[in-house]
């Protein structure tokens, strides 16, 4: 899925300080039960995905596999990212709605 709306929402969440990226930061946010929605790149390594899915399940967090690492990085204005944790319910709901409307996840 390469929805411009999704990319816009990710950028807004990042600028608002409601998105966490980087492997360790995402894992710590999941362990700290701060995450409302977890986005994983479609090209993340199997073992990395497995670990993130396990942590998300423990934290009762919905996971969406969207975009690739490069596209996620561009959307949030950073280098390529394997995962982004959304820590705000409003942004999480906007992204989930965008994903449903485009037929993803």
Give a brief description:
The chain has 105 residues and is α+β, with helices and mostly antiparallel strands.
Class from helix and strand fractions? alpha+beta
Largest sheet: 4 strands, mixed
Helical residue percent?
A: 40-55%
Oligomer: single chain
Q: How many beta strands in the DSSP annotation?
A: 4
Elements, N to C (H/E) = HEHEHEHEH
The tally of helices reads 5
Using only CA atoms, what is the Rg? 12 Å
Q: Kindly estimate the percentage of residues that lie in beta strands according to DSSP.
A: 5-15%
What is the overall pLDDT average?
Answer: 91
Q: What is the molecular shape?
A: globular
The unreliable regions are: 101-105
Kindly report how far apart the N and C termini lie: 9 Å
Strand order of the largest sheet: 1-4-2-3
């Amino acid at each position: 899925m390469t929805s411009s709306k999704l990319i816009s929402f990710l950028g807004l969440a990042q600028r608002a300080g409601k998105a966490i990226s980087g492997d360790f930061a995402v894992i710590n946010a999941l362990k700290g039960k701060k995450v409302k929605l977890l986005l994983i790149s479609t090209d993340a390594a199997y073992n990395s995905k497995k670990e993130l899915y396990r942590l998300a399940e423990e934290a009762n967090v919905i996971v969406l596999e969207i975009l690739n690492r490069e596209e996620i990085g561009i959307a949030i204005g950073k280098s390529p990212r394997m995962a982004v944790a959304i820590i705000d319910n409003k942004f999480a709901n906007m992204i989930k709605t965008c994903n449903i409307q485009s037929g993803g996840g």
